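Narrative summary of target 7.
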Amino acid sequence: MAGTVRPFYALVRDPKSPDGRIRSQEPEKNKYLIRYKDHLNRWRSEIFEGKRSSAEKRLQQIQVVVGEILAKERPAPEAERRLVDAFDEYCNWLKGDGKKDSTIIRYQYSFSAFIKNGLRSSQVRDITVRDINNFRSKRESEVSKESLYIDLRHLRAFFNWCKRMRYLLESPMVNERFESQDKPIRFLTEDELVRLYQVLESDLEMKDLVKFYICTGARAAELLPPRFTWSNVYEDKIRLLTKRDKVRHVGLTQEMIEILESRKELLAPFPYKYPAVYRRIVMKAYKDAGIKGANIHSLRKTAGSRLVQKGVDIYRVSAFLGHSSVRVTEKHYAELLPSNYENLAEIIESGLPDTHMIRKNSTNLYQMSDFGKKGKSPFVDEDFVARAGIEPATHGFSVHSKPKTKKPDPPRQNEEDPSDSLS
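Modeled conformation, tokenized:
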């Protein structure tokens, strides 16, 4: 049965390319790469730490297991994994991969909706395309189309992971195609901001937090512990840890400095948990202010929209919000400034010659010409039309005119004029 044990060469940074990776010239000590074929005749890899003799014994064990599966003495891995157990393992993997708790909770919400239709005791390999279609048709009547697409994306990611773990041979969503519709961004209007601040007069802690959300364009978790503590506060700016642990700095206004000064006795500038913040801002303050269809992330959208509407360059807005690309900013905010695009022609025209006067003068010249006095068009040979009975095509600015008579060439030097010889 095919299989090999080789020294393991780790990937290291390529000195010629900052973003590139190459294999190390030296193998890792006491680390080996085991290659073998599974019961589906597909090559698999496993990294083994220890002595080479132990790695070879591990390869023999794997080959024995594969042989037993082929002889049907042992069930295949994809035939013995319950759906709920696989999802619990998947959630642990997500957590180890650095996913936030709020993201994992959203995955669990999608999975719970999927298994509540009698699929809790099912095996992973038993899920079919029919189950996916039944879930989709039932879910469409319960949630919005955008929420349905989120559920389907989460399920597709889960089944792709199950395939990598060899709990199933093929994902039941391999041919699933769906596109989410881009919703218009939800930001707070001037009137909504006024009403919100009036309501928050009774909750000054959340009023200070809302002020920071809007003035910094921060995401919900970026101003709360453990991401945001006093170590992130400097004399005239703050440091925010954004997605994928990127860092961006935001300058402080005088009012923001005063807010931080008033909160120095606290363990953190805003020592609150996200559920409590959501409850006090969205469920209470928004509701009392009559604000619908908005969440905490809408405050970040409000920051971006106000910058764009005040004429700030889209590249500066992208850098301020910490977007991965200016395309992300354009996708969300470019439509807020249609007047900017409409006025570009006027900006270009301002540096050109006055074509209005040229057109006016051209019209006057035409009216004073023989064509204008006779009411004829300078672009149509009317004598030709009368003779042929067909009006020639005048594509754009094509002009049909009589052929010009060729003037005789002037006499060359030292060449006698014929008239002189006749005199």
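The chain is about 45% helix and 10% strand.
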